């Protein structure tokens, strides 16, 4: 009996250990205050058991990347008005969640993401909670890409270009949010986003929704007793308003007074509708104001006139620093220093709060005898389908020279007074015109929205280009019919059979790899060593229907596929900036057999100086369907995968080798056969992929072994 009791105690202790291990023992809270780095706290939490980061009230200026699981970032006060994160780099997401699960972001104001970026971006994430945040003055308030089973609740997305965007994302819930005063639209759901539920939200935008079809999406919940977002007695659908007062929910009939409209709200160009749209039972505040002047010489005195409705209190923040500067209804403020200022009015009543933002520019005082430039221009079109041709015409005054940056990458694209530019890829572009003379400079910016052509690919709009591109630090992947950055492609889209994107962070002196996990093309990965830091960079791979229209002649050998590879902005991927570039590609065994191709003759050729150059190519692996190869190149541009037809009767593929699953030869954790062609990056990637499917397997195996040992000992002692 004593031995049996001892063994039982050991088993109980082991079980208790496992329970404590799963309970998250060791969890701690990290406090961050203004001046400290939130990113450093995130990195520290990644490396330890800490998983709660609490921000003290104040303003933080940085961009944050989160690629860990089970992490929470919250404001200490729970009030987004006093805990603000501003983008340090406007050409990046303010908070970027990448392959992160079970992450919670709450109680923050997030602002300042420009170009194609978001206040909060989720890429390949699941089971995350984004709640009680304010997303203000970003290109996208919330951008949800290839992310599933997330909850977005009680957020405010206002004064952005786009409020909330779902791209190739399934089974997410959007409820209790206020989505208002966004310039392009409030909500976008792409046709590859399925089984999402959108209910009990307050929309107030000129265009509230771009709702594509998808499968199984719902824009209302079942009618249930409970207070809804506009104070009604039942929860059901959403409140659909417009700033001019003509929104569906502002004009619909509710004869029975249950707070649900008597008719459904049908989305344009969509199979979907909100079957239980809300009618306001309570008067919500509506923030609005005007200024007597928005631009002038410092010191600049501005009279603010309130135009809000249903308001009992006003809070003015004249420079968007998180501090309330006035609670008067119609205040006056003097901007003594030159600069660009953001004015924020928050109005409240007993039923809620809303916010409106406008811009003030206080200029340097000018000598009355000096003439300063005034930048201005027109565009023949500001939105349309790719490829979009835009005629830019200078309308500036007192300008001696002009500098145009047509995609906000810091590069001067033209110095002409009038010119035409063609945007070949979908996306949101910011055009900058700088007008100068001997006394100073002036700048004007304007957005250009380029949409994907309906019916080609997924039929999505201007922002679909980034739907399937992961925004990851290090190696990441994505795919789709559009492009989400980089230098774009000069290839006509009519010649593109398939396209895939990948993003990675490029730092000087570091190796970088772009993986293409969606298998949309024949390219597996691209890697190189970088001599220059460029930050987050997009690589585009295009698999073509025929040879590139920018190439004069085809190569002499049998062509398997033509591909274009574009890395970063135009001119980046040169020997001045990168070294040791490698392309990994795959070729179907069926093509090799059908065409009677000698596998040893398969090469990657690059088109340069009006001729095809065969690159050093080696076979690196195989699986049931493909042979894998790597090739060394000098730069990235136009490529062709080719092979020579066999002249003899050598068997191409041994039927005995047709085994299920990837073949990894003798590649093991203990040894690596250097003569085995699968002892390569491809084989290692297959091993990593296989191991990734069973996280914690070694731990579980060890626990089971211990239990089996104790049971064996007990039985043996019992005998």
Q: Can you tell me about this structure?
A:
The chain starts with a helix and ends with a helix. It has an eight-stranded parallel beta sheet, covered by helices on one side. It has an eight-stranded parallel beta sheet with strand order 3-6-9-12-15-18-21-25. It is mainly beta and 719 residues long. Helix 1 (2-22) packs antiparallel against helix 6.
Structural class: mainly beta
Separation of termini?
12 Å
Share of helical residues: 10-25%
Low-confidence stretches: 19-25, 454-488, 649-701
- Adjacency order of strands in the biggest sheet: 1-2-5-8-11-14-17-20
How many helices does DSSP assign?
6
Largest sheet: 8 strands, parallel
The Cα radius of gyration reads: 29 Å
Number of strands: 52
Shape: globular
What is the residue-averaged pLDDT? 80
| Beta-strand content | 35-45%
Secondary structure: elements and pairs:
Layout: H1 2-22, E1 29-32, H2 38-47, E2 52-55, E3 58-61, E4 64-66, E5 71-75, E6 83-86, E7 95-98, E8 103-106, E9 109-111, E10 118-123, E11 129-131, E12 134-136, E13 140-145, E14 151-153, E15 156-158, E16 162-167, E17 173-175, E18 178-180, E19 185-189, E20 197-199, E21 202-204, E22 209-211, E23 224-225, E24 234-235, E25 239-241, H3 248-251, E26 265-266, E27 273-274, E28 289-291, E29 295-297, E30 300-306, E31 313-317, E32 332-335, E33 339-349, E34 352-363, E35 377-379, E36 383-385, E37 388-394, E38 401-405, E39 418-423, E40 427-437, E41 440-451, E42 496-506, E43 511-515, E44 523-530, E45 535-544, E46 558-567, E47 578-588, H4 589-595, E48 603-608, E49 611-614, E50 617-622, E51 626-632, E52 638-643, H5 681-692, H6 697-718
């Amino acid at each position: 009996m004593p031995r049996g009791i001892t063994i039982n105690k050991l088993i109980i202790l082991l079980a208790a250990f496992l329970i404590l291990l799963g309970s998250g023992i060791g969890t701690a809270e990290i406090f961050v205050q203004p001046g400290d780095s939130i990113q450093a706290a995130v990195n520290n939490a990644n490396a330890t058991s800490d998983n709660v980061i609490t921000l003290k009230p104040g303003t933080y200026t940085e961009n944050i990347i989160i690629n860990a699981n089970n992490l929470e970032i919250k404001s200490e006060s729970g009030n987004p008005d006093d805990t603000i994160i501003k983008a340090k780099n406007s050409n990046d997401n303010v908070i970027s969640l990448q392959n992160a699960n079970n992450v919670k972001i709450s109680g923050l104001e997030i602002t300042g993401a420009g170009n194609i970026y978001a206040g909060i971006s989720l890429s390949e994430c699941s089971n995350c909670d984004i709640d009680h945040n304010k997303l203000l003055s970003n290109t996208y308030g919330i951008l949800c890409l290839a992310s599933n089973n997330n909850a977005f609740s009680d957020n405010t997305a206002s004064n952005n270009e786009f409020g909330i965007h779902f791209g190739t994302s399934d089974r997410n819930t959007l409820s209790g949010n206020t989505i208002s005063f966004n310039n392009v639209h409030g909500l976008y759901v792409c046709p590859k986003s399925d089984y999402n539920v959108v209910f009990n939200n307050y929309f107030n935008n000129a265009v509230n929704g771009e709702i594509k079809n998808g499968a199984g999406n719902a824009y209302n919940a079942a009618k249930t007793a409970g207070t809804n977002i506009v104070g009604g007695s039942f929860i059901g659908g959403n409140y659909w308003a417009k700033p001019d007062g003509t929104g569906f929910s502002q004009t619909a009939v509710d004869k029975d007074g249950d707070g649900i409209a008597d008719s459904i709200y049908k989305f344009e160009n969509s199979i979907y509708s909100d079957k239980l749209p809300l009618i306001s039972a309570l008067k919500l505040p509506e923030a609005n104001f005007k200024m007597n002047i928005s631009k002038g010489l410092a010191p600049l005195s501005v009279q603010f006139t309130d135009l809000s409705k249903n308001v009992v209190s006003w809070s003015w923040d004249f420079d968007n620093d998180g501090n309330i500067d006035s609670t008067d209804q119609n205040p006056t403020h003097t901007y003594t220093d030159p600069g660009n200022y953001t004015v924020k009015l928050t109005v409240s009543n007993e039923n809620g709060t809303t916010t409106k933002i406008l811009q003030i520019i206080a200029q340097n005082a000018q000598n009355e005898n000096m003439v300063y430039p005034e930048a201005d221009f027109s565009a023949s079109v500001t939105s349309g389908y790719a490829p979009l041709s835009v005629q830019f015409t200078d309308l500036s005054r007192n300008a001696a020279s002009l500098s145009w940056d047509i995609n906000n990458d810091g590069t001067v694209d033209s110095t002409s007074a009038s010119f035409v530019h063609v945007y070949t890829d979908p996306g949101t572009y910011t055009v900058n015109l700088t007008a100068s003379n001997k006394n100073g400079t002036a700048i004007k910016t304007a957005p250009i929205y380029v949409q994907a052509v309906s019916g080609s690919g997924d039929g999505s709009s201007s922002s679909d280009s980034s739907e399937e591109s992961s925004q990851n630090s290090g190696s990441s992947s994505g795919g789709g019919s559009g492009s989400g950055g980089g230098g774009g492609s000069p290839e006509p889209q009519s010649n593109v059979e398939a396209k895939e994107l990948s993003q990675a962070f490029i730092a000087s002196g570091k190796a970088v790899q772009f993986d293409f996990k969606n298998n949309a093309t024949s390219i597996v990965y691209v890697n190189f060593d970088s001599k220059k830091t460029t930050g987050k960079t997009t690589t585009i791979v295009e698999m073509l229907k025929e040879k590139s229209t920018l190439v004069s002649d085809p190569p002499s050998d049998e062509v398997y596929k033509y591909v274009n590879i574009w890395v970063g902005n135009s001119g980046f991927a040169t020997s001045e900036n990168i070294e040791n570039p490698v392309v990994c590609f795959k070729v179907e065994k069926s093509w090799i057999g059908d065409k009677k191709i000698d596998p040893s003759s398969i090469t990657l050729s690059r088109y340069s100086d009006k001729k095809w150059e065969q690159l050093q190519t080696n076979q690196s692996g195989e699986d049931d369907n493909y042979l894998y190869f790597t090739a060394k190149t000098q730069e990235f541009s136009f490529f062709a995968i080719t092979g020579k037809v066999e002249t003899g009767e050598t068997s191409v593929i041994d039927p005995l080798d047709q085994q299920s699953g990837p073949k990894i030869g003798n590649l093991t954790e203990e040894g690596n056969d250097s003569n085995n062609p699968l002892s390569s990056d491809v084989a290692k990637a297959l091993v990593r992929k296989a191991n990734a499917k069973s996280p914690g397997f070694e731990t579980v195996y060890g626990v089971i072994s211990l239990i089996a040992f104790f049971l064996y000992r007990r039985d043996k002692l019992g005998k």
